[in-house]
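Dear colleague,

Following up on yesterday's call, I've attached the two folding results inline so they're easy to grep. Please treat them as preliminary; we haven't cross-checked anything against experimental data yet. The first protein's sequence and structure tokens come first.
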Amino acid sequence: EMGLLDEAIGEFQKAARAPGRPLRPLEALAGCFLARDEPALALAALDGVARDVEAGRLAVHPADGGACEASLVGLCYLVASASERLGRASDARRWYVRVLALDYAFRDAAARLASLPAPD
């Protein structure tokens, strides 16, 4: 927020390397990359988490008190947004659908999904 993205990126990268793959630092890190208009770096930062979500190894659990769910929705949204910025409409569509399945009112996901070109 104060224009210190390089410093923030370094700190979020350190925090993201903590044991147990903490989701919030990864979400913040990807957000910083998107703020710098570097969607490929955002996707690279989220690659492992995205693979875990798609494989069902990372899912929302009610016992987490909602913290995991909030981060998971945010991470899926960031993957969708980065994919959209890179022109990967089918990937973006798939991730926006996942976001809406978790939280239909999340940010502008429904509008972004609607604005994507129709699937081939």
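Below is the second protein, in the same order (sequence, then structure):
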Amino acid sequence: MKKFKIIALLLLLATYSCVSVRVTSDYDSKTDFSKFKTFAFYKKGIEKVDLSDLDKRRILRAIETELLAKGMTKSENPDVLISIFTKSKEKINVYDNSYYGWYPWYYGYGPYGRGMHNNVSKSTEGTLFIDMIDANKKELAWQGIGVGVLNFTDNKAKKEERIKEFVLEIMKKYPPVN
């Protein structure tokens, strides 16, 4: 029974880690963010991002949705320019599932026992940076960063939902609260 509880806990943690997005942000403390009412996307910066055009559009639509919900409007003459940057790295996790308890002879060793069991899992951890550049000063005013496990799947709805989740969690940090 105890072994079952340990496995259930590991599965719960693995599931939670796949869903969550760790978020942080940084900003220029001298910037008055209440003056930022309009935005546009910084095409030169976005073109350099190593993503498919489809994924770029998904991210930009999600950002636009969040900014509009915050009362900002899209403009040809914006107060801020929005740029993105991404990176990813493959993670390999090794879980030692060996359990001997108080009676190691019961579980056995060697090729017929249950003494050595390791599980190896691979995942891709992605990082999304959302930059807000003061259009007048041409300086970075705010940066939001989200890090989480990416689920590469053929299910486009799940992929789009994961992108929206990343953007939503990052944009919760904007505008910054002093």
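For the second protein, one point worth flagging: The helical segments are 2-19, 43-47, 53-69, 104-107, 156-171.

Best wishes,
A.L.
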